[in-house]
Amino acid sequence: MEERQLKRKEQIEPPKGKLGVLIPGVGGAVSTTFIAGVEAVRRGLAEPIGSLTQLGTIRLGKRDEYRIPRIKDFIPLASLEDLVFGGWDIYDANGYEAASFAKVLHRDHLDPIKDFLETIQPMPAVFDRRFVKNLDGNHVKPGTNLRAHVEALKEDIARFKEENGVDRCVMIWCGSTEVHLKAEEPHRSVEALQKAVDADDPRIAPSMLYALAALESGVPYINGAPNLTVDIPAFVELAREKRVPIAGKDFKTGQTLMKTILAPGLKARMLGLEGWYSTNILGNRDGLVLDDKDSFKTKEESKLSVLEYILQPQLYPSLYKNYYHKVTINYYPPRGDNKEGWDCIDIFGWLGYPMQIKVDFQCRDSILAAPLCLDLVLFTDLAQRIGMHGIQEWLSFYFKSPMHKQGLYPEHDLFIQLMKLKNTLRYLMGEDQITHFGLDYYMGDA
Amino acid sequence: MEERQLKRKEQIEPPKGKLGVLIPGVGGAVSTTFIAGVEAVRRGLAEPIGSLTQLGTIRLGKRDEYRIPRIKDFIPLASLEDLVFGGWDIYDANGYEAASFAKVLHRDHLDPIKDFLETIQPMPAVFDRRFVKNLDGNHVKPGTNLRAHVEALKEDIARFKEENGVDRCVMIWCGSTEVHLKAEEPHRSVEALQKAVDADDPRIAPSMLYALAALESGVPYINGAPNLTVDIPAFVELAREKRVPIAGKDFKTGQTLMKTILAPGLKARMLGLEGWYSTNILGNRDGLVLDDKDSFKTKEESKLSVLEYILQPQLYPSLYKNYYHKVTINYYPPRGDNKEGWDCIDIFGWLGYPMQIKVDFQCRDSILAAPLCLDLVLFTDLAQRIGMHGIQEWLSFYFKSPMHKQGLYPEHDLFIQLMKLKNTLRYLMGEDQITHFGLDYYMGDA
Amino acid sequence: MEERQLKRKEQIEPPKGKLGVLIPGVGGAVSTTFIAGVEAVRRGLAEPIGSLTQLGTIRLGKRDEYRIPRIKDFIPLASLEDLVFGGWDIYDANGYEAASFAKVLHRDHLDPIKDFLETIQPMPAVFDRRFVKNLDGNHVKPGTNLRAHVEALKEDIARFKEENGVDRCVMIWCGSTEVHLKAEEPHRSVEALQKAVDADDPRIAPSMLYALAALESGVPYINGAPNLTVDIPAFVELAREKRVPIAGKDFKTGQTLMKTILAPGLKARMLGLEGWYSTNILGNRDGLVLDDKDSFKTKEESKLSVLEYILQPQLYPSLYKNYYHKVTINYYPPRGDNKEGWDCIDIFGWLGYPMQIKVDFQCRDSILAAPLCLDLVLFTDLAQRIGMHGIQEWLSFYFKSPMHKQGLYPEHDLFIQLMKLKNTLRYLMGEDQITHFGLDYYMGDA
Amino acid sequence: MEERQLKRKEQIEPPKGKLGVLIPGVGGAVSTTFIAGVEAVRRGLAEPIGSLTQLGTIRLGKRDEYRIPRIKDFIPLASLEDLVFGGWDIYDANGYEAASFAKVLHRDHLDPIKDFLETIQPMPAVFDRRFVKNLDGNHVKPGTNLRAHVEALKEDIARFKEENGVDRCVMIWCGSTEVHLKAEEPHRSVEALQKAVDADDPRIAPSMLYALAALESGVPYINGAPNLTVDIPAFVELAREKRVPIAGKDFKTGQTLMKTILAPGLKARMLGLEGWYSTNILGNRDGLVLDDKDSFKTKEESKLSVLEYILQPQLYPSLYKNYYHKVTINYYPPRGDNKEGWDCIDIFGWLGYPMQIKVDFQCRDSILAAPLCLDLVLFTDLAQRIGMHGIQEWLSFYFKSPMHKQGLYPEHDLFIQLMKLKNTLRYLMGEDQITHFGLDYYMGDA
Questions:
Q1: Does A281 sit within 8 Å of D342, measured CB to CB?
Q2: Chain C residues within an 8 Å CB radius of B274
Q3: Which residues form the Myo-inositol-1-phosphate synthase GAPDH-like domain (chains A, B, C, D) (predicted)?
């Protein structure tokens, strides 16, 4: 983007019309928790806990000015009332059936909005079992011609907009983790990508077809899985051409969230790391998919690099050069959607003396992911409206593997990510950057 | 301080001569671990893990400039070679005996520096058992006349400087937690304080006599315990008058350190808090002292307020208004100095669904505290040399209950504290503040 | 009892008629969970998990005979169909209201049996706030005359039997923990006790009045709390005179249950113990009562002695002489009835090398206690029917502080307790004792 | 064995002469910890914590007789003074070097017995890398002729006896876990086994050659690993022929020990099990070996079956039919020999309500195994001396997968195992079996 094309301050107008939220994997646990939750909030039945856009505040100016508006009162975002949901799934269950199957939300929360949820009917999905081995669905688009799939998806998008009177759309991938792919020749440029689609190249994953359909329709794409998808030069180029935002990848929830909280804490205090063992147990469909070792490889890479970037062993060799990092995920049905992560962290302090931290995080996967979906949809729509296209690095806060410009390292530290996000908002609205420098309060008091 | 009197950039000269480190409680576990560690590092036998001044780096300029010097190469600090240790204790054990008794460091680390440690002979302490009920020592100054005690301490300081050829001094309290005191009449002004000392007022704690002796000798005072000591108007006034820095209070180690890492993480993600139960077990002398409920009260206050300030319930009533926070400390001899903290944290997310975090931190009290002592001594000496007197809020990073200017709230978030510290250093050396704003990297790339 | 008076084998007839279950504290969490559960099981809506009488089996004869009947098919016990519930409470809520307030069972379990639960109307309780400081109720019998209270309770019992057509009764205390009492003069004999009741002696707790009313009515008394109550010579004497069983004390659930599982394991393997730190958090009414330090003292004694008896330091001084044992209970409302216990156990093995065990038990107080109530009621009724009066040591399995004959030590090891219980049943039915001796299987195979 | 051939009571004479302890894997962590420990105990430098033979007592007669001798004073066992150690290893390090490498015992424990440990020189081992893929040693017997290996081992045994003036021997396998083998044709009979050895059959593991050499030399064989080895009909037959005891398999330490403590506790209380997830991290050579999935399969089978036998789902379908059991082992170098096991146990109680138990066992593999070696050597020698040959089921207490007679199920419950062991000792010495029946104490007191 160019600065002069970026709208700022009073140029940023309140959004008008409806915002379509298009979700590949619309019948999954995360999607249904997200959708049902938005509706419950709209009806005043629950609160959007975990959502920065809805509950977060932003400090402006000096500490003693006490100017701390809510983020949504500070910068014009789409309102919950204007969201319209749709999407694709390999199972044809409607939103109520799918949410009931997911067993994340209680009957007490689902029943009052049953009427609404039943209106969410998934469109047939583009699916290829080579990419997700442990699942099988029958609500899929026929044939194996990739270009035909892209065109069908684009028609789906157009029809959805028309049928729902939708003004703008955002696509957010809440589907499964695909098998591990590396960026290769067909991913190097828009031209190569288009050629590969035409050639039904096996290195083109279904998620890439969704992204292509989105970008060609002028719709931003958010990648909630660790899939490669838009994290390739071809899509970065296409996003710039079409002036559309892209964001990803892999929602940062559960154990990795915890890791990006704790690791910055250890590093702040210059405590050394000898080893970090992480095990996860979960019993939902995500756990089943990750029981396939090819899908796990995709996830594992996303999970392992986090520490490396936060701890900067090249700067702190005596602290972080040789730590042993191991991550395992186990399918464990008794846990259901209630993922549990156990971390065993071996650190060392003064003179090298060892200490240990054990963290048992009994979390809920979809409960943690749902508010991220909401925030990402609203912030990405904002970006689209004001002309911030391409990689949205300021949204790193939400991702396990934040996309970033080539030549820059990704930022994984949750606290730096939050500061980056908020200072970006301050910049957009013409407010001073916050630095937490505080010496000025203490000057001139002699 | 006034800005024009503050030395900055090239005005900040490398320190010359020796720096005396005067420690009330010099024979305790923290002190001996600190002193023995510094000597071991000086002899190349170990590394000062945990010390920001020795191992920390500071990023300057833009992310892609890769200017990241070590802090100690960036701003002139006293070198470890120039530190000379002395202090007071209620037991007359020398440094080697005291360190052996503390059982923090192994024989393997103590034996090679036995010769050095044996030279650390404590001076007789000012002690009053009403303030520390579970200890009793016999290496104390005679009499109960407070003014006489202050004068004796000042003579100790002067003699120490002369005998050791010391140029500058810093006093750092590593003694026990005293019983709980509230700021009252005798603490309101320098005049009232001096009058109370003359009157042997029972509201004047021994630690205050040390602080008074320090400040009147032009020596900065660092408060490593939760004791009231310099956190009263009288000492703030005196510090300004004498142009001496004061810092405190209560070294942030163990469970509270963990709390100020985790709580900002929960808040970053707008996750609600229903309850936080913290239990500590430790078996060292500190544990014994805190088994007295009056001393515990002092500690408890220091520990409880942390969450309140980080979570800001006034801004986030739906998330943090009604959480239940409980902290207990238990004397448990099998653990020795190896403190263990167990946290049971009840949080809630999207639509109010509950989740749990359990943290078991098997840490070592003195190992965590020793590098804080080192950093605080070096940074406070820096402050003294360049004219930053009074409360050192920029050192909040190191304390459970950071001292702060009246009318400002204390900053407890470890990550904001670190940013504050580093941006202060950047300011002092004339470098730009870091804001983590990153949009500029992405502009102009169309 | 005398052996010739004890009915055995075919003398043990199936019970006839209804069995009244009389519960002081009938509106509490344990009672309502017990009562609602029995009804749910009767209606086929749930299973009596945790109940030895309902689900347990008993191996008879040799391992290769495979004779393993259910306990309830082996020895004639009252059936669930024949139980009739009643009791006293200081709050006048009916069974449905009380169960809803307790928040142990979900609406899904309570609603289908609402009609039944509403029929449980508590009789006004005998209550004295000096014995339970943190509670206050208004559904109490008037006056403070102890003898009058006993008579009123006896009338309640008689009326209950008549109104409900009940054949036999058992009283089981599910009320609160009273303040700590020691066995003193008024507890030494039946005569002294009766005199003390007449004199309104303050050492006579309300629970003793219930027990007196029960025994004088020929009704067995089971003590589910750590209260002294029947664990005094006076009641042992009275039980013998009246030929009525008594059993107690303090239901073994949660952390103490875990302790009597783990400690026998450590001892089996001759692993030494250096320390055992136990902390409990719970948020129900029980937690509130135990926040009063006098009530906690009663509980603490019950909890602490367990290890001492299991580990036998007098036999194993090198292993168990000097361990440090600490138990704390904390009121922590977020946990509700879902008690959580955390144990930190410091053990040592071969040559004294230290190891650690941490156990986090996220249990549910009433869920663990309810099946104990059921078993105790049925087994105590059996004892009554066949002439086993006085202390029921064979039921030690269910109690934190098993009552026992003077001169014998109590048995705390859960596995020995279970063996004792089952071998008692085998004895009663004329089957061989099981010894787990197995050499015979291997003999004669040459 | 036949009863009339079994020596009992006064026929059991105190052992005379020296007892040779022959260890395949003599240079491993378990072996060196065992050997060094015995020597340290002999010199009065440490205590044999964890050893039932050395510290255990045995109750005789009634509870109020207080006859509770030490086991070693009750039944004549070889004394520690009479043990002589030898063995084989694929590395040629002597006992001191090997123990130092293992890093289990501190320098403080090894240095005072360095002279002794250096005398332990391993004989060259029989090794075949196809059976232990992640190790490689060079101190091995040449060639691949299996019969030649057996003969070489027999010569080693004979020479060891002669050179050390040893009267009797016991062989105890402390080597690595071999890849998974199933009992097949060559394992069906002595004849088939001998034929397979002659034919260099690849289904004959190295451990079987050791066992063959031992039994043919009249030396009992104890199997400390999960290897198949003597747990096949061929060796059971051979042991009977040669009248030699065999015992196995897989020392029960760490997480499985914990499991056989906890599972009987859950079952005692009829608490249901929904899932049990166990993860292990360890960094020693054992961890490295088990990182090979074929070796892990051998271990996994040994670990998984434990629950099945204890919980008896066929008897308790509503409690134990459908639990999900998962065991993982991870090589994690920071932990060294200090194995750590984390168990996440999902149970359910009354009406099916779920509860959770988490156990973190920070143990030390070799410290737990060493006393088992000692006990097994002494008890197996006892068995040999008194004519108890073949499978020693009474020693099930020590094994993860206790060997048992065909047609009988193995006993995994630690408490039943201990009872079995002690009642066997009582039987041998002519004492009454203990049943924990206690009603007799309460009879006749009317």
A1: no
A2: 334
A3: 254-366
A63 contacts B315? CB cut-off 8 A: no
Burial class (CB in 10 A: 0-12, 13-18, 19+), A101: middle
Question: Nearest CB to D324: which of A277, A332, A360?
Answer: A332
Per-residue pLDDT of chain B (446 residues; tens, 9 = 90+): 676 678 988 899 999 999 999 999 999 999 999 999 999 999 999 999 999 999 999 999 988 888 999 999 999 999 999 999 999 999 999 999 999 999 999 998 999 999 999 999 999 999 988 888 777 888 999 999 999 999 999 999 999 999 999 999 999 999 988 988 999 999 999 999 999 999 999 999 999 999 999 999 999 999 999 999 999 999 999 999 999 999 999 999 988 999 999 999 999 999 999 999 999 998 877 777 777 777 787 777 777 889 999 999 999 999 999 999 999 888 898 888 888 999 999 999 999 999 999 999 999 999 999 999 999 999 999 999 999 999 999 999 999 999 998 888 899 999 999 999 999 999 999 999 998 877 777 775 43
Distance in Å, alpha carbon of A367 to nearest chain B alpha carbon: 5
H/E stretch holding A191: helix A190-198
Are D332 and A342 inside 8 Å of each other by CB?
A: no
C contact set with B (CB within 8 A): 274-275, 277, 279, 281, 323-324, 326, 328, 330, 332-335, 340, 342, 344, 346, 358, 360
Determine contact, residues B227/B298, Cβ cutoff 8 Å. yes
Rg of chain B's alpha carbons, rounded to an integer?
22
Q: What's the pTM?
A: 0.93
The C-alpha of B334 sits at a distance from chain C's nearest C-alpha, in angstroms, of 6
- Distance (Å) from the C-alpha of residue A421 to the closest C-alpha of chain D? 37
Torsion sign over Cα C134, C138, C141, C142: positive
Structure-token pair, residue B256: 């509270």
Residues on D contacting A at a C-beta cutoff of 8 Å: 274-275, 277, 279, 281, 323-324, 326, 328, 330, 332-335, 340, 342, 344, 346, 358, 360
The SS3 call for residue A152 is helix
Is it true that the peptide bond before C321 is cis, omega within 30 degrees of 0? no
Q: Is the peptide bond before D420 cis (omega within 30 degrees of 0)?
A: no
Q: Please give the backbone phi and psi of residue D255, each rounded to the nearest 5 degrees, phi first.
A: -65, -35
Domains of chain B, CATH where assigned: 3-251+366-428 (3.40.50.720), 254-362 (3.30.360.10)
Q: Checking DSSP bridges between strand C18-24 and strand C166-173, what pairing results, if any?
A: parallel
DSSP E strand boundaries for B180-314: 221-223, 245-248, 272-282
Q: Do B326 and C332 touch (CB under 8 A)?
A: yes
Residue D446 to residue C355, Cβ atoms within 8 A: no
Q: How far is A416 from chain B (nearest CA, A)?
A: 7
Write down the ipTM of this complex: 0.94
Structure tokens at A229: 């998808």
Contacts of B228 (CB under 8 A, 6+ apart): B178, B181, B182, B183, B187, B205, B207, B208, B298
> For chains A and B, what is the number of CB pairs under 8 angstroms?
292
Nearest to A439 among B362, B397, B424 (CB): B424
Whether B346 sits inside 8 A of C334 (CB atoms) is yes
Q: Which helix (H) or strand (E) holds B441?
A: none
Burial D337-369 (b: 16+ CB within 10 A, else e): bbbbbbbbbbbbbbbebebbbbbbbbbbbbbbb
- Contact D140/D90 with Cβ under 8 angstroms? yes
Three-class SS of residue C342?
A: strand
Q: Residue D279: beta bridge partners?
A: D328, D342
Chain B neighbors of A40, CB-CB under 8 A: 351
